[in-house]
User: Which sequence fits this backbone?
């Protein structure tokens, strides 16, 4: 089979799996698990073959126009370069891991068939986005991902948190998608085509007329999808979905789609230095803010969600300094270790029966209960904190190196300011990342107190997946940083000494400071007992997680934070903790700016409809009824009255005729 | 003779009958008023027949012939009318026209049947007597 | 239109009209006027009196007055027919009707219905319109009553049996039908009086929920009522109508 055929099969297989899963889910439950895992696994194999055949050489382009559509043609096009090939491998890899993990995680879930089918559909859409060479086809995948995310976040729709979170995720990402769509149209109008290759050719020849406008419009969609400031608020709430979904969609792949999209069309953004500065500021604010917020979260998954936002900030930062190789490199390594973090967190939540770090810090011996999760999570947290030689170190240093390069050396199309912004924010975020990673590790695994209730052995598939994911988290960076430039733009990804020392240094400082703070506060834990665990320890992990999410607000007063004096983050952040815990009140600001006006407008419309429009409608009904009542009164049944009226009319008519006839 | 005299008299008689038809409560009085109206028409017919037979040399005497027919028909009408009134009286115990309101809107609620019960309560013996005399 | 037509017919005798003085009434006219006043007055009393039997008697006066007017118009045959049929039979029939329906003797305060003011308005308006039209149309038209009588028995008989035989015979059929109809309407059917009230309930279906106290009478009345509308047909159809 040609590479093109294989590449077409890659998104097609999970799609067929999803369709079959949705059709057969009820009638043939035995087929659901194979239908969920096997197509994704096959897609992984095919994506690997495609990647090998592409091999970082010239991009594979293939297009077929289905039907003429008017002025700007829409084509089913493939555009597979090194980025696409490797990202597709990552997507298939994580998707396969998540599907396998889910068979254990949602073992007894009655909605598992639809869940698995939606994950497959999501995988297919993501692969479509990755491989597509046409912006409209890319948009199709983009929106299908959005709707899958909506359904999967709302998987536990019995809980109000999940319902609200899915609605919020959908609305916020759509808020970004509207300008995104307009930007795509503007771009295609300028370029005369939706084909990525033609767009890039147009940009190279300077044919883009409104680069800043287009770039900013597209950035809105990217910010929505990749959870960048100011449209990031949906991502922490999306943690109300099942953990495997968080791992796949809200950590490894979908949120990376925005970054990937910018990487694909980076020349378009580079055509406008204003857009690059905006991108840099966006990345810097996102990075630093999410680091602070992550330090204050109590829900283990929300910590990871803010961490995801921050790492996506690194990627956009790399893009802002024009190095898409570094961005995609970090995307790949982050995809691996963040998926691992989430899946391990799922195991921990199952084992401890809670998602609250405060409760975990009061449980003894959790580490021994889930040794696989402990070791793999340690690896992943080290990768997250960018400690050499874990993969996160190499990818993050490549980002910082690119930022330093842009800041110190004058380049033609990258503003030096963008470089400085990204560099400073990146180093600051490295400190914060190490701090919250350490906090998470210490609170989750080094709690003291009564032993956690026994929830039985974790399913083998879950633990196996953790170890499979631990391999790239551990080794991907070190092995790949020399090879990857061949696949990417050829820019060197080797860590530079300055940024390596700087980044690792601040990371160590962050970790040590957090450790010190933890030592200081951990004594308080015994004095302030708190915690609540799920009521059904025998249930599968999905049930435990749903109960943990549902009970967090009643148990701790807030979905995000807990009033835990033993939290080192509280000591480190000081007065900032209160604001960081709520994501710096951005939700409240949005509530005041958008939600309340919309609700007020809705009630106004309701008032207008009920009181004003309905009045006319009812008036239209009442008037004939009154007329009818008046006419009814004439129907007395008295013949004499009738005849009187008849004769009176006759007299009047006769007189009228007479007057007309005599000309009076 | 001036033709206006019989014409005006006929008109006035007609309108008097009209008033009686519209204003009288008893059905037999209404029938009397109808007779007045018919007679007014007859008077008109005769007067114009006489006028035409003199001025237009009309030998057909259609006016007088029609008058005779009208009188005959009126006699028939009064017979049938009285029979109907009697039948109604036997059925309803009254010959008052404004109590015969079966065609009224919402007849079930405020029709003649729900009129003051006293009149109805007194009727049955009267009705039976009416039947007996009939 | 009517005015124009009548005015056109009135143009021919207009020349002759000049020989008559407008306000120089002849003896016939004076008699006509006086009798007409009496007739009109009697008619007014007929429709206005509170005593029902008096109304019938005043009707006799009015009808008799009209008969005199016929005589004055030289239609003597019709005048006698009027006296025979109206005064002689119709009024008697009406008096019978009054008696059969238990009409109160003496003053009955509710002789007029609540419709009387509307009736008065309509009647006065109609009278005004008619009188205006008639006077306007015929103010210059005279009838010459001299010469042979226009409505003597001989003349009328000749006319009737020369030109109007067929309608005359058809009229006899009509009278027969009226005779039969009147008998059918007034007679008490054996089948109805013997049928139980329950069977005749459907005839009074228009008032389904009446209290028990009246059910019986309504049922019996209903039997006759059901007879009423169907009665003009022949007695065999009567059963079908129920």
Assistant:
């Amino acid at each position: 089979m040609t590479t093109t055929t294989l590449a077409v099969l890659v998104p097609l297989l999970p799609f067929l799996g999803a369709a079959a899963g949705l059709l057969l889910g009820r009638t043939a439950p035995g087929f659901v698990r194979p239908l969920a895992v096997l197509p994704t696994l096959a897609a992984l194999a095919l994506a690997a073959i495609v990647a090998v055949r592409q091999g970082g050489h010239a991009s594979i382009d293939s297009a077929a126009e289905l039907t003429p559509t008017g002025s700007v043609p829409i084509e089913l096009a493939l555009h597979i370069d090194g980025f696409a090939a490797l990202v597709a491998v990552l997507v298939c890899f994580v998707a396969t891991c998540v599907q396998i993990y889910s068979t254990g995680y949602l073992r007894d879930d009655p909605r598992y068939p639809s869940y698995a089918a939606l994950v497959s559909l999501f995988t297919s859409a993501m692969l479509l986005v990755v491989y597509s060479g046409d912006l409209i086809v890319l948009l199709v995948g983009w929106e299908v991902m959005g709707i899958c995310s909506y359904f999967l976040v709302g998987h536990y729709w019995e809980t109000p948190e999940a319902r609200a979170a899915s609605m919020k995720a959908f609305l916020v990402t759509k808020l970004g998608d509207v300008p995104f769509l307009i930007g795509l149209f503007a771009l295609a109008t300028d370029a005369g085509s939706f084909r990525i290759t033609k767009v890039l050719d147009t940009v190279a020849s300077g044919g883009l007329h409104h680069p800043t406008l287009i770039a900013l419009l597209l950035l809105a969609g990217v910010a929505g999808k990749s959870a960048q400031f100011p449209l990031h608020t949906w991502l922490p709430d999306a943690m109300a979905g099942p953990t495997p979904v968080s791992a796949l969609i809200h950590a490894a792949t979908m949120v990376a789609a925005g970054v990937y999209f910018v990487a694909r069309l980076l020349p378009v953004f580079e055509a406008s230095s204003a857009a690059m500065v905006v991108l840099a500021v966006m990345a810097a604010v996102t990075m630093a803010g999410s680091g602070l917020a992550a330090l204050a979260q109590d829900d283990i998954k929300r910590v990871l969600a803010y961490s995801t936002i921050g790492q996506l900030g690194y990627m956009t930062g790399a893009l802002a300094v024009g190095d898409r190789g570094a961005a995609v490199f970090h995307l790949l390594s982050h995809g691996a270790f963040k998926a691992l973090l989430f899946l391990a967190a799922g195991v921990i939540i199952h084992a401890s029966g809670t998602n609250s770090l405060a409760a975990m810090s009061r449980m003894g011996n959790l580490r021994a209960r889930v040794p696989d999760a402990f070791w793999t999570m340690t690896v992943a947290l080290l990768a997250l904190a960018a400690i050499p030689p874990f993969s996160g170190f190499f990818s993050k240093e490549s980002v910082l190196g690119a930022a330093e390069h842009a800041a110190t050396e004058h380049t033609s199309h990258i503003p030096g300011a963008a470089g400085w912004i990204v560099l400073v924010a990146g180093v600051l975020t490295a400190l914060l990342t190490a701090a919250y990673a350490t906090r998470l590790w210490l609170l989750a695994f080094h709690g003291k107190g009564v032993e956690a209730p026994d929830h039985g052995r974790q399913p083998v598939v879950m633990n196996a997946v953790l170890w499979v994911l631990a391999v790239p988290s551990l080794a991907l960076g070190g092995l790949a940083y020399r090879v990857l430039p061949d696949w990417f733009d050829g820019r060197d990804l080797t860590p530079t000494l300055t940024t390596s020392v700087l980044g690792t240094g601040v990371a160590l400082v962050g970790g040590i400071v957090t450790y010190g703070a933890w030592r200081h506060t951990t004594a308080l834990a015994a004095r302030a007992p708190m915690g609540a665990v799920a009521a059904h320890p025998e249930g599968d992990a999905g049930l435990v997680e749903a109960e943990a999410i549902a009970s967090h607000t009643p148990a701790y007063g807030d979905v995000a934070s807990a009033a835990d004096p033993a939290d080192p983050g509280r000591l480190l952040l000081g007065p900032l903790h209160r604001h960081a815990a709520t994501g710096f009140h951005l939700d409240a600001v949005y509530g005041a700016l958008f939600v309340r006006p919309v609700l007020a407008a809705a009630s106004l419309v309701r008032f207008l409809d009920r009181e004003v429009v309905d009045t006319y409608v009812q008036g239209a009904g009442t008037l004939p009824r009154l007329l009818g009542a008046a006419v009814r009164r004439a129907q007395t049944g008295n013949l004499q009255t009738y005849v009187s009226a008849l004769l009176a009319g006759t007299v009047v008519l006769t007189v009228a005729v007479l007057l007309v006839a005599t000309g009076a | 003779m001036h033709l206006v005299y019989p014409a005006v008299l006929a008109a006035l008689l007609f309108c008097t009958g009209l008033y009686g038809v519209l204003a009288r409560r008893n059905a037999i009085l209404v029938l009397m008023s109808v007779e007045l109206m018919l007679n007014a028409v007859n008077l008109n017919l005769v007067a114009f027949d006489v006028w035409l037979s003199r001025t237009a040399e009309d030998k057909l005497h259609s006016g007088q012939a029609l008058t005779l027919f009208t009188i005959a028909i009126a006699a028939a009408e009064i017979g049938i009318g009285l029979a109907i009134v009697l039948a109604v009286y036997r059925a309803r115990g009254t010959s008052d026209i404004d109590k015969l309101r079966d065609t009224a809107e919402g007849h079930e609620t405020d029709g003649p049947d729900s009129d003051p019960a006293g009149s109805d309560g007194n009727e049955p013996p009267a009705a039976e007597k009416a039947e007996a005399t009939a | 239109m009517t005015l124009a037509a009548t005015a056109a017919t009135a143009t021919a005798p207009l020349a002759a009209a000049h020989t008559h003085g407008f306000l120089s009434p002849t003896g016939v006219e004076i008699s006509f006027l006086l009798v007409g006043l009496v007739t009109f007055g009697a008619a007014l009393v007929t429709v206005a009196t509170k005593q029902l039997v008096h109304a019938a008697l005043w009707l006799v006066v009015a009808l008799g007055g009209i008969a005199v007017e016929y005589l004055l118009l030289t239609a003597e045959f019709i005048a006698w027919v009027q006296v025979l049929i109206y005064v002689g039979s119709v009024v008697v029939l009406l008096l019978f009707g009054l008696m059969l329906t238990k009409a109160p003797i003496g003053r009955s305060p509710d002789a007029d219905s609540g419709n009387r003011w509307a009736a008065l308005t309509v009647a006065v308006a109609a009278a005004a319109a008619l009188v205006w039209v008639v006077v306007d149309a015929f103010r210059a038209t005279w009838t010459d009553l001299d010469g042979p009588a226009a409505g003597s028995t001989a003349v009328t008989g000749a006319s009737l049996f020369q030109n109007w035989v067929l309608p005359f015979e058809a009229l006899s059929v009509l009278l027969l039908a009226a005779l039969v109809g009147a008998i059918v309407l007034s007679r008490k059917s054996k089948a109805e009086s013997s049928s139980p009230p329950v069977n005749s309930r459907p005839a009074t279906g228009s008032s389904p929920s009446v209290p028990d106290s009246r059910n019986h009478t309504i049922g019996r009345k209903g039997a006759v009522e059901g007879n009423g509308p169907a009665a003009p047909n022949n007695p065999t159809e009567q059963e079908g109508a129920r």
Summary: The two ends of chain B are 48 Å apart (CA to CA). Chain B touches chain A at residues 18, 21-23, 97-98, 100-107, 111 (CB under 8 Å). The helical segments of chain B are 4-23, 27-55, 62-92, 107-110, 117-133. DSSP finds five helices and no strands in chain B.
